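Supplementary Note 3. Input sequence used for the single-chain structure prediction.
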Amino acid sequence: MSTATRSNSRIGPEPSVCGFSFGRNLTKLNYPVEAAVGSVLPLCRRFVFAVGQSDDDTRQRVANIDTTAMNHGQGGTIEIVDTQWPDVQVDGEVLSIEANKAMSAAEQTGCTWGFYIQADEVIHEDDLSLVDAAMRRWADADYVKALLFRYLHFVLDYETTDPWMYHKACRVVRLDRTCRIFGDACGPGFRDPPPHVLNVNDGYLDKRHLGTHVRWAAEVDGHGSTAQKTNGLLLGRKARVFHYGWVKTRDQLDEKFEMVDKLWWGTLSEEEKQRRKHSKFGKFIDRYPVLKKYRGPHPALMDALIAQHPSYADVRSRWLNPRFYAEVLKHGFHG
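The predicted structure, written as C-alpha cells, is reproduced below.
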C-alpha cells in the first residue's frame, strides 16, 4: 500500500506492528497462505509464523513468501518458529495452542500491536487504511486490547457466502502480555480476566472475552474518533476478513472435514461426533442453494486463485427457494 493511501487516515504516531500466524499441511488444505500473510505485511515491521511439522511443502511456502511490502523498507524475511503439534483432539484447542506459540514470539519483538491472520484469511487492500488509522487512534489507550473486524465466510466457491457463520472477530491484539488466543483460535481474550468482564468461560466469542476493551477497525471521522453507534448499529465502513477456508472442491471438502473431525472430535463417541458436526458446520453442499451470493471485489492477492476455481453449481436466486425461508425461520435472517 502506498504512503499516499495511508496518509489520508493517519492519526497519531505510527505504532509498531508484528504480524503472526500458524499452520501445518496448508498445501493439503488448499489454504492461500501467501495471500493471507501478504495482505497484512504493508502494516507490519515484522512477521512471525509458527509452522507445525507437515506432510507437505508448507514450511517452504512460508519461507518463500515475498516480504517486500513489509513496512520497514528492507524486505526482511518471515521469522519461522518450528513446532510440533500436541495430540489434542477436542474442540480445536490445539489451534489456540499453536496460535499462542506465534503470539508469544510476536510479544518478544516489543511491538505495540500484533496483526493476527490465519492462513485461510485475507484482508482487502482497501481496508488497510482503516486498520492503520484504528491502530494509531488506540495505540496509547492501554485499555483497548484488540480491534474487531467484519467477516465474510466463503463456501465451496468464491461467489457464495454463509451469512449464518460468525460475523465478527478480533484480528489485531495488543502485545502487552495481557491477552492470549482462546478456544479454537478464533480470537483473543484476557489471560487473567478482570472482574468486570463477563462470560470469561466462553473462549470462542472473543468480543465477550474482552468485554468493553475492544474497538472496531473502522473508518474514523475528521476528529479522529472511530465510527459511532446509533440505535445499536455501527455507522461507518469496517475492515473485513475474507475467510476462504471452506472454498473447496468435493474432494478437498472431504480432506478438510477429515482434519476437523480429528482436531475437534477425535476422542468423542461417534454419536457425539455427528451431533457436533451437524451443529457446528451443517451440511455445506446441501445448504449451498440457500446461501448468499457475493458480488463485490475480492482482495487483489486472490485474483489468480479465484480465476482457477469455478462456481460450484448453478442455482436460482435464494429468494425464490422455499428452503431459504425455512432457514430464516430456524436461524433468523443474517444477510
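Confidence is low (pLDDT under 50) at residues 1-9, 200-207, 222-234. The chain has two domains: 3-148+165-225, 243-331.
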